[in-house]
């Protein structure tokens, strides 16, 4: 599937942060809306398990990324390290659907931050997540 031929929802642009871990999943898009931070992509074969369904590991990695960024983008000169992450898988995602991970910070502290996320496939809730992050001052780190 050529994901570039599918419509990317309004407000999304290419994600500013690339990583060797997520390179096989590109293109990944992002959207900021107030305190909310979303990641999105069109589900394709590299995102799926052997049954052709969206893999829970993809959901988890994107939720971790989105929730951490939802916190650090509200703070200055900090980075976040995942302390705990909880996922509830509620339904499935299929090839061709638009996947969106909508994350919002729940509480921002000096040393800990908390965030929640909803994961949707074509607008239908497929998973929910929450996470705790250790907040650390950036020391020569280029990205959050």
From TrEMBL:
GO function term, MF aspect, one: fatty acyl-CoA hydrolase activity
Ranges for domain Thioesterase: 52-125
Keyword S-adenosyl-L-methionine: no
InterPro entries tied to this protein: ACOT13 (IPR039298), HotDog_dom_sf (IPR029069), PAAI_dom (IPR003736), Thioestr_dom (IPR006683)
SUPFAM superfamilies: Thioesterase/thiol ester dehydrase-isomerase (SSF54637)
Superkingdom field: Bacteria
Keyword vocabulary terms for this entry: Hydrolase
Keyword flag Electron transport: no
Pfam families hit by this protein: 4HBT
Gene3D superfamilies assigned: Hotdog Thioesterase (3.10.129.10)
Family of this protein: Belongs to the thioesterase PaaI family.
Protein name: PaaI family thioesterase
Organism: Erythrobacter mangrovi
């Amino acid at each position: 599937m050529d994901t570039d031929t599918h419509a990317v929802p309004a407000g999304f642009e290419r994600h500013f942060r690339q990583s060797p871990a997520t390179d096989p999943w590109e293109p990944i898009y992002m959207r900021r809306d107030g305190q909310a931070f979303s990641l999105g992509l069109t589900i394709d074969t590299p995102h799926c398990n052997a049954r052709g369904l969206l893999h829970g590991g993809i959901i988890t990695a994107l939720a971790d990324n989105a929730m951490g960024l939802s916190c650090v983008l509200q703070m200055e000169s900090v980075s976040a390290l995942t302390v705990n992450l909880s996922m509830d898988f509620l339904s499935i995602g299929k090839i061709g659907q638009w996947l969106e991970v909508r994350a919002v910070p729940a509480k921002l502290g000096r040393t800990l931050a908390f965030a929640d996320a909803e994961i949707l496939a074509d607008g239908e809730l497929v998973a929910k997540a929450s996470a705790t992050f250790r907040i650390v001052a950036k020391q020569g780190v280029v990205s959050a």
